[in-house]
Amino acid sequence: MGVYARTPLAFERGEGARLYTADGEAYLDCMAGIAVNALGHSHPKLVQAVKDQAEKLWHTSNIFTIPGQEKLARMLTDHTFADVVFFTNSGTEAIECAIKTARKYHWARGNPERIDIIGFDGSFHGRTIAAVNASGNESYLEGFGPKLPGFVQVPWGDHEALKAAIGPTTAAILIEPVQGEGGARAVPDQCLKGLRQLCDETGVLLIYDEIQCGLGRTGKLFAHEWAEGAEPDIMAVAKALGGGFPVGACLATVEAAEGMKPGSHGSTYGGNPLAMAVGLAAMEELVKPELMDNVRAVAGYFTQQISGLKDRFPDVVVDIRGKGLLIGVKLATPNREFMQHARDQHLLIAGGGDNCVRLLPPLNLTLDEAREAVSALERACEAARAKAQALVA
Q1: Nearest to 205 by CA among 116, 92, 88, 121
Q2: Residue 317 pairs with which residues in a beta bridge?
């Protein structure tokens, strides 16, 4: 189907932070599959995990015990607020599970009317019908019928609007601690703490979408950990969880998941032995303190250097956003044109809302590779300025 505006660029192989075309041209990958290849391409530990498990068992069924699920679930609960985990194949499936879990929680407590999920403008939670309704982005909803009941959007950062939206039918608040698609906007720590307090006061569940910003992307294992005491009741993760292999998960406290009984939810492929083997290998790397140290060091370098580009190219770079290695650069020139300028310099970056581009490199990117990326960004800024000046002339 013609649903992708594809770039005529294809890759044959990858190694670390590099992607290579069939004719051997190398590109520095600061997209990482949209924050998916968090450990780079062809990470030897992940490759070996796939090989070893592929020779044993790919798939059974969730009617059987899957030891790899129990191991990965334990690793996730040991490192988070959560008590229980449901495994999926993708982030949007994790969001679906989160929504169902929140509504079933209230149903189990005798409040079936509490179905409303409050979201925020600029959010992105995936492409299923429920996920696009949770985001409320008109361009993603157009043509797919009437809006579903039970989804409410409020302006991002408007505390009074949020408080006013909470009522007797509210089930949960759903938010990305750092928006990705919506323009790399980070929720201030004090606001996350305020959300937690508001949910406690109103009996509303707090759901974090850490599909893009979680699993080390911000320099802590999860973005909300920067705000002490702001733990959610439910959290959706994916992307980096499999290091490039399709793995997602919905994490919850045992209380929030009390309505999820046998038959409440399920998945054919979610949590299969092959996915769990890769997820375990990825998590063992992602929880290493030295990886988080690297994220913080490289992110600090990027922020400093891109701030310099903003000073030198105010006609190109308007603002710098995000957190850690989820870096948003708001532009004065069209972001898709800028992405092409970067590709011309053999640098791959992602687009984003609000005319932003995003840098989402592997978490193990080196400082030397970061310097190379900044040099390419500088040349892209020069090209964008030259094009803008030529249009004026």
Answers
A1: 116
A2: 331
Q: Which two tokens stand for residue 67?
A: 């030891």
How does strand 234-237 pair with strand 248-252? antiparallel
- pLDDT of 392 reads 82
pTM: 0.97
**Furthest-apart CA atoms within the chain: distance in Å:** 69
- Give catalytic residues, as residue numbers: 124, 209, 239
d(CA 282, CA 181): 24
Retrieve residue 302's tokens: 């990027």
Token pair for 337: 């044109």
> Per the structure block, which two tokens stand in for 238?
């994916």
In tens, the pLDDT along 327-367 reads: 999 999 999 999 999 999 999 999 999 999 999 999 999 99
CA distance 91 to 304: 31
The radius of gyration of the chain's CA atoms, rounded to the nearest angstrom, is 21
